[in-house]
């Protein structure tokens, strides 16, 4: 949902190595789209004696006017950060604007470099993460790439032993599966940063942004009604950010990297960070771009993953379902990146004994 003008405002034209390196009721889901032959990959977290099994899938979007466009999204998987077998990072970066892919790849490359060389990463992961995001944002502003109307959203998960550190700028998402008796529940570990959120809406309004859907901008709906319902029910006409007297930039997200024009009306790079301690009831987590979550709720994505033993098959099913839903609702599809990470054989010490999932 979240890009600048062309990619998501469909009515507006555009104005991997060291370790491993790759920069309810369940029902079976049948995928018509086999989109990758990537093998299942495994990394061991020795400090807590469990493994992460993961698979990645990327799907190029379909746009009628730019059939041969490149994928605007990129991903990062870097295991054994700083040669530490207990530290791994998984990230998804969703570029937008004219120089979309350049921005997502720039952030991808620099994040790995900064985390791999940072002396404070393990002492204070939250501070190190925030500093990395802000430093990269400054580098983007100073780079030769024009960030006037281009940038990238970014969401990453740093695994340190049995703890997940999440950083988020934008509207990609991390969701984790939690076993509760006979049920498998979906728990969002990140919050989409959009104007659907009251706190983000109020923040960008204070920065001077006009918040309007495209129908409101074009006069089909009353611009004075500042209520757009629930995000998952609103489809393809979300509230967007516009400068006070212009028809740009039209971002649906309220945080990103780059985007120097949108930055003037409150689209900032300061990431939201959360910390999650893994338990034996956590089965897997999913890191994916908004191309997945535009029409698939988190609970549906978790149900689909749980229906498959092999995360490669789950990736293909989710991408196929997302692609189908895009074409049922739009005349295009978004680019898609999805990473599924299964948590295997997690042991947790309990009063001197070990609890095994």
TrEMBL record:
SUPFAM superfamilies with a match to the protein in the record: PP2C-like
Stored Pfam families: PP2C
Catalytic reactions of this protein: O-phospho-L-seryl-[protein] + H2O = L-seryl-[protein] + phosphate; O-phospho-L-threonyl-[protein] + H2O = L-threonyl-[protein] + phosphate
GO MF assignments: metal ion binding; protein serine/threonine phosphatase activity
Ranges for domain PPM-type phosphatase: 53-343
Keywords, comma-separated and alphabetical: Hydrolase, Magnesium, Manganese, Metal-binding, Protein phosphatase
Requisite cofactors: Mg(2+); Mn(2+)
E.C. code: 3.1.3.16
Domain of life (superkingdom): Eukaryota
The keyword Transmembrane helix is assigned to this record: no
PROSITE patterns (alphabetical): PPM_1, PPM_2
Family the entry assigns: Belongs to the PP2C family.
Name of the protein this chain belongs to: protein-serine/threonine phosphatase
